């Protein structure tokens, strides 16, 4: 009968598991393997955090450099309006070669310039 084969297979599987649990070599291998997998998981998580922090730091520094280049070319005319000429160097810092668009807005103490974008 098919039911008897399944029952005998179940008994054999449990006996095999008990034998593996009784083997010191298998237990030590399991502990070493689990420790190794845990260490790899922790290392991957810490590497992800470090890579994310590094990318944010580099992007922040690039934004600050771009803002400084833009700030050097801001002039105010006699009427108090800010004249802004965005130099290409300020936008080339973000050039990735994928035809991205850069949106910008310059805010001064007197007024907000009209926002724009460059490709």
Describe the structure.
The protein has 119 residues and is mainly alpha-helical. It has 2 domains: 1-72; 74-119, no CATH class. The protein is 63% helix and 10% strand. It is built from 3 helices and 4 strands. The protein has helices at 2-22, 24-72, 88-92, and strands at 74-76, 82-84, 102-104, 116-118. The strands form 2 sheets. The protein has a two-stranded antiparallel sheet with strand order 1-2. A two-stranded antiparallel sheet has the order 3-4. A hairpin with a 5-residue loop joins β1 (74-76) and β2. The N and C termini lie far apart (75 Å). The mean pLDDT is 77.
Tell me the series of helices and strands, N- to C-terminal: HHEEHEE
Main sheet attributes: strand count, strand direction, barrel closure: 2 strands, antiparallel
Number of beta-strand segments: 4
Question: In percent terms, what proportion of residues is strand?
Answer: 5-15%
Low-confidence stretches: none
Could you tell me the mean pLDDT? 77
Number of helices, counting only DSSP H or I runs of 4 residues or more: 3
Indicate the percent of residues in helices: 55-70%
Supply database-style keywords.
119 residues, two-stranded antiparallel sheet, two-stranded antiparallel ribbon, 3 helices, 4 strands, 63% helix
Secondary structure blueprint with pairings:
Blueprint: H1 2-22, H2 24-72, E1 74-76, E2 82-84, H3 88-92, E3 102-104, E4 116-118
Antiparallel strand pairs: 1-2, 3-4
């Amino acid at each position: 009968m098919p039911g008897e084969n399944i029952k005998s297979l179940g008994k054999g599987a449990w006996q095999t598991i008990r034998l593996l649990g009784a083997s010191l070599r298998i237990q030590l291998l399991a502990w070493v393997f689990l420790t190794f997998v845990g260490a790899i998981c922790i290392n991957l998580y810490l590497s992800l955090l470090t890579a994310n922090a590094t990318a944010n730091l580099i992007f922040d520094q690039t934004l600050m450099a771009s803002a400084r280049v833009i700030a050097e070319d801001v002039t105010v005319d006699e009427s108090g309006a800010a004249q802004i000429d965005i130099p290409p160097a300020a936008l080339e810092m973000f050039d990735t070669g994928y035809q991205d668009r850069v949106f910008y807005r310059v805010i001064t103490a007197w007024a907000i310039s009209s926002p724009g974008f460059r490709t």
